[in-house]
Amino acid sequence: MELKYPVSDKFCGLICLVMCLGGPVKAHPHVFVDARTGFIFDADGQLETISISWTYDEFTTLILFESLNLDQDGDGQFNDTDRAAIIEGETNWDSAYKGDVYLEFAGQDYPLGRPEAAAVTLNNNQVEVSFDLPLSQPIRIETAPVFLRLYDPFFYYAYTIVPPTDPTDLPEDCQAQIVPFEPNAADSALQDKLAALGREDMPAVGNVGRLFSDEVQLTCG
Amino acid sequence: MWLRFGVIVLCIWAVGLAAWGIVQWFEIQRWAIGEQRTFQNVMAGALRGIQAGDPQAVWTLCSATAAYGFFHALGPGHGKVLIGGAALASGATLKRLSILTVLSSLAQAATAILLVGSLSFLLQIGSADLADLTETWLAPASYVAVAAIGAILIFRGVRSWHKINQSKQVTHGCCGHAHGPSVDDVATLTTTRDAVALIASIAIRPCTGALFVLVIAARFDAFAVGCLAVITMGLGTAAFNLTVATSGVVAWRLAGLGARNHHGVQAISAMLHLTGGVMIIAISIVMLLPYLR
Predict the structure, then answer these.
(1) Closest CA relative to residue B46, chosen from B64, B71, B69, B33
(2) CA angle, corner A126, sides to A124 and A129, nearest 5?
(3) Which pTM does this prediction carry?
(4) Out of A2, A15, A154, whose CB is closest to B2?
(5) Contact criterion met (CB below 8 Å) for B150 and B278
(6) pLDDT tens digits, one per residue of B64-86
(7) 3-class secondary-structure state, position A44
(8) A63 touches chain B (CB under 8 A)
(9) I need a surface site. Which of B5, B12, B30, B168 has the fewest CB within 10 A?
(10) A186 Cβ contact list (under 8 Å, min separation 6)
(11) What gap in Å lies between CA A136 and CA A114, rounded to an integer?
(12) Residue B36 near residue A29, CB atoms below 8 Å
């Protein structure tokens, strides 16, 4: 009889929600990434490509050295073999993975292509991987803003979006703004989800992760 | 009877939920994650220092891993769930729980050392595969083991509850000789077997961070230094988990205040076994969910 309350669907839902919605609360990040983003427009003024760069923390950089057996000559520099190994490991991902990059257009996840033009550098003991993700179809951004979010639904990777070192030129009437993750906003979104708890379905983890991510807001016009 | 214990259980959950609502978890987590990032970078610098032959680097590394262990433990993990739940259920002394907490953290460090020592050295398995092995097999195995301990706690709670009711019925026909279960019948963590099960279920899954430290240290021909650093990391984790164990012990004591007599203590102990067991199972199932999809 006593157990009836704790194991009811509603209760499991609550536990699950609390854990899933926890986002940052849920798990232990092991990899810290400073991410830089850019928007590339085509000649017609349509958004064509997203450029991404990931700068890994120093510890993860050491792990990369070990796991990919980099810098075998020990000179502290990458050679072509090292760079090729990193690019293969970092950007040749399987199709189920989306690179932790999510573009929202008109309220929907907008499909992105596979990484192109990947490059690798090593600065201040940190590996930086950069690449471009083409949009499946270029889009014209008019009234509604486009949101670019970088997050790992399992929070093993913790992304922080930082300003680009050399910003790409945007069309004159467009601007990109970094909106850092704001705990209070996530809190109120959490409240909304809790209020909707009557339904039996479990929250989709992937959709919840975005509540806790930094985002770049691109507006035109 | 039922009503009273229902109230106790509800109070425990209410306090938990209130803590969830009032405390600035997001801020604390953000701060902890920021600190973790800092110490992770210090660890990297110290490891590079060891490679370069800097004698100071060993101490820098050990202090950084200890701090890393502490801040890393601030996120909810399987060890804390089990230790907190067991502390709530068992009524074991703080001293006993503290020893168990430290031993389980050290055992977790030992697992990492064994894994890297055997797989990495003998079989030449790289760090990425080790991390995969940990996340794919050892993590769910540990959650299952933790859930099983939760089930045992529930079983013990139900069994002693059953005995209490039986003894009451017997009392009516037998001149007031109550032969209920003694508190020892339900007490948990009093035997070596219980202690080993608890430590093992936590230790099955090493911390990925510890694996990485060892693998990098091995690459720099400093595996022994890596082992030392992982042990101090375990002690850092234990330092935080001790606060969880203490909370569990305090909660048990508070719940025990409601008991007026021997019967009450037994019943509350049974109820806390149920509560702790359900809590452990619920959270381990949530942790297992991603693996079931």
Answers:
(1) B64
(2) 130
(3) 0.77
(4) A2
(5) yes
(6) 999 999 988 887 677 888 888 88
(7) coil
(8) yes
(9) B168
(10) A23, A211, A212, B26
(11) 10
(12) yes
Q: Are B75 and B31 in contact (CB under 8 A)?
A: no
Any chain A CB within 8 A of the CB of B16?
A: no
Mean pLDDT of chain B: 83
Distance CA A198, CA B245 (A): 34
Closest residue, chain A, to B48 (C-alpha)? A62
Provide, as residue numbers in chain A, all residues whose Cβ is less than 8 Å from the Cβ of B290: 154, 205
Verify whether the Cβ–Cβ distance A125 to B48 is below 8 Å.
yes
User: What letter does residue A29 receive in the DSSP assignment?
Assistant: -
Residue A166, both tokens: 């050399």
Structural domain harbouring A190: 4-220
Cβ atoms of residues B101 and B248 within 8 Å: no
B49: contact with A, CB 8 A cutoff: no
Please list the residues that pair with A40 across neighbouring strands: A49
DSSP letter string over B101-165?
Answer: HHHHHHHHHHHHHHHIIIIIHHS---HHHHHHHIIIIIHHHHHHHHHHHHHHHHHHHHHHHHHHH
Name the minimum distance, in Å, from the CA of A61 to any CA of chain B.
9
For residue A208, pLDDT over 70 is answered with no
**For B244, how many CA atoms within 13 A lie in the half-sphere containing its CB?**
23
Best CA proximity match to A77, nearest among A131, A130, A34, A120:
A120
Burial category of A198 from C-beta neighbours within 10 Å (exposed 0-12, middle 13-18, buried 19 and up): exposed
B43 interfaces chain A, CB cutoff of 8 Å:
yes
Q: Which two tokens stand for residue A66?
A: 């070990």
Q: Summarize pLDDT for B199-226 with one digit per residue, the tens.
A: 999 999 888 889 989 988 988 889 999 9
The 10s digit of each residue's pLDDT in B14-48 is 777 676 666 666 677 778 888 888 999 999 999 99
Gap between the Cα atoms of A166 and A161, Å rounded: 14
Collapsed DSSP state (helix, strand, coil) of residue A57: coil
Closest by CA position to B112, among listed B219, B223, B244: B223
- Among partner residues B27, B215, B283, which is closest to A15 by beta-carbon distance? B283
| Separation between Cα atoms, residue B104 and residue B249, nearest integer Å | 17
| A18 contacts on B by Cβ (under 8 Å) | 20
Check CB contact of B128 with chain A, cutoff 8 Å. Answer: yes
